[in-house]
Specification:
- With about 500 residues, the protein is of the alpha/beta class.
- It has two domains: about 5-135, HUPs (Rossmann fold); about 145-195 and about 225-500, 3-Layer(aba) Sandwich (UDP-N-acetylmuramoyl-L-alanine:D-glutamate ligase).
- Helix content is about 35%, strand content about 25%.
- Helix 3 (about 90-100) packs parallel to helix 4 (about 115-130), helix 7 crosses helix 13 (about 445-460) and helix 13 (about 445-460) runs antiparallel to helix 14 (about 465-475).
């Protein structure tokens, strides 16, 4: 069946075909929509979509949507979808009354709707015996694409998707290269927790004869800087001017961090906390597979004395920066007092704030970052913050934007890339695919993404251009074992590869 034959104006042929009906505008089809449609398809043989027509879009939405022709064509190209009815000739309620689907599946945001289009559809479903289900699809944090496509095929498809996004926004390779050349105009102050990542390559020996325990033999180890220190190194390696503020322990790892950041030309202001070691994480690997992580860490807040010194230094150096990036791993450096003071000073001086928080493996809450220019949580971190594991991705994103009052939000979806939102009328909403379909080490993807997004924002480049560069940056970052700062030259070469 071609995509054109899936779009129906006469509904007679859809009646009585064991149908499940979905509804929406489906402007940018992203992984959240696919989860929703996959769940609906599991209920009946035929999946029909009632697609909101251009005339049905709200006035504050109509200018930021593709046309109904373009949206229906995109849906028709999905193997999941069997038929599409545009609400130009029939209302949603009329479609239900004529088709009489077994099920009508809607996102949770419609459950308490007072919109007459929805309430009349509920009445129609009840009258014809259709069961209404509110479900956004199963929440998951990994991709199964590799089960259906070769790795190289997935990568080429994602390259193609990115090129289409560039084409629709009139973005050329030259445009992106020129933006990178302007990174030297950015002045970023990075604040957060310093981590030393120790990678230990091992040989598998087998199972212990004494107990069912795997035995491995250490071969070699190598240390990398991590946490907020790699964020600062990315910023500097891209060509921006970077100053890094953090807290270290009085130990040998402190010297390693100082040496590495000097190598990457990051100016530093460190404060020594005798009550904690420099955070040290050891990952044991067999080939490229991580089998265990052990952390040497203290998570209590820094003392009032260190807070005082930290904030005094911040006030001394803040003038001249056009962006402050908080990389919070919830280990006690960015305390409530430190955060509140930074927010107040930056707002008074009209300095942009960018925030990322790690709360998937420890306690943290990104909603403590208020009125930031950009936040970049993972889907899991957003759901933890909102205590919501059932709503669809769209609703999660809008809840978080309402909660934090951030200007821009990036919801990271792991192997499914990320979805970006501008929190304003007619704001951009775009799904960007993950470009590296065979990552070696995903630990630093988010750090690289917020690094380049902050630099782009600081030199006042369009959000969509920043997203394209962010996807390229993250793809490069996950191609190595351990955190290695990405240079501007390496980024340019990668962009050339995509545009070939």
């Amino acid at each position: 069946m071609t995509h054109k034959t899936k779009i129906f104006s006469n509904l007679d042929s859809i009646v009585g075909t064991d149908t499940v009906l979905c509804y929406g505008h489906f402007n940018v089809i992203h992984p959240g929509h696919l989860r929703y449609l996959e769940y609906a398809k599991s209920l009946s043989k035929n999946l029909c979509i009632a697609l909101r027509a251009d005339k049905d879009l709200d006035l504050d939405e109509e200018f930021k949507h593709f046309s109904e022709k373009e949206r229906s064509a995109a849906l028709a190209n999905l193997n999941l979808v069997d038929s599409i009815v545009i609400t130009s000739n029939y209302s949603f309620a009329e479609i239900i009354s004529i088709i009489k689907p077994n099920f009508v599946v809607l996102g949770g945001e419609f459950e308490d709707s007072n919109d007459i289009r929805i309430t009349s559809a509920f009445r129609a479903a009840n009258e014809c015996g259709s069961k209404i289900i509110f479900h956004a699809g199963e929440t998951h944090y990994a991709s199964s694409n590799f089960l259906y496509d070769e790795v190289s095929s997935i990568e080429q498809k994602n390259f193609s998707k990115l090129r289409k996004i560039c084409s629709s926004n009139n973005i050329s390779e030259r445009d992106l290269t020129q933006i990178i050349n302007n990174f030297s105009k950015a002045n970023i102050l990075v604040i957060g927790d310093t981590i030393v990542d120790n990678y230990v390559a091992c040989d598998p020996v087998g199972l212990s004869a004494e107990a069912p325990v795997m035995v491995i033999k250490e071969i070699e180890s190598k240390q990398f800087i991590g946490g907020a220190s790699i964020v600062a190194s990315h910023v500097s390696s891209l060509g921006a001017n970077c100053h890094f503020m953090s807290v270290l322990g009085n130990d040998e790892n402190k010297f390693f961090v100082e040496e590495q950041l000097k190598k990457y030309k990051v100016k530093c202001s460190f404060f020594i906390d005798e009550s904690r070691p420099t955070t040290f994480k050891t990952r044991y690997l067999v080939n490229n597979q991580k089998i265990l992580r052990v952390s040497k860490i203290k998570e209590h807040n820094i003392s009032r004395e260190i807070e005082n010194d930290f904030l005094k230094k911040f006030e001394d150096v803040i003038d001249g920066f056009n962006g402050v990036l908080l990389s919070d791993f919830s280990y006690g450096v960015i305390t409530t007092r430190v955060l509140n003071s930074i927010e107040k000073i930056c707002q008074a001086k009209n300095i942009k704030l960018f925030g990322d928080i790690q709360c998937s493996s420890q306690i943290g809450n990104i909603s403590k970052f208020k009125n930031f220019d950009l936040l970049t949580p993972t889907e899991k971190e957003a759901r933890i913050t909102l205590s919501d594991n059932s709503s669809g991705i769209e609703l999660i994103a809008h809840k978080l934007m309402d909660e934090t009052k951030c200007s821009n939000l990036i919801l990271k979806l792991g192997a499914d890339g990320f979805i970006a939102y501008e929190n304003k009328k007619n704001g951009l909403r775009e799904h960007i695919p993950a470009l590296n379909s065979n990552p070696i080490d995903v630990a630093g993807a988010g750090d690289s993404l917020i690094s380049i997004m902050s630099v782009c924002s600081s030199v006042k480049k369009p959000f969509i251009h920043s997203l394209i560069l962010g996807a390229c940056m993250a793809s490069l970052a996950v191609g190595n074992i351990g955190n290695i700062p990405i240079t501007s030259d390496k980024l340019k070469k990668y962009i050339s590869k995509i545009f070939k």
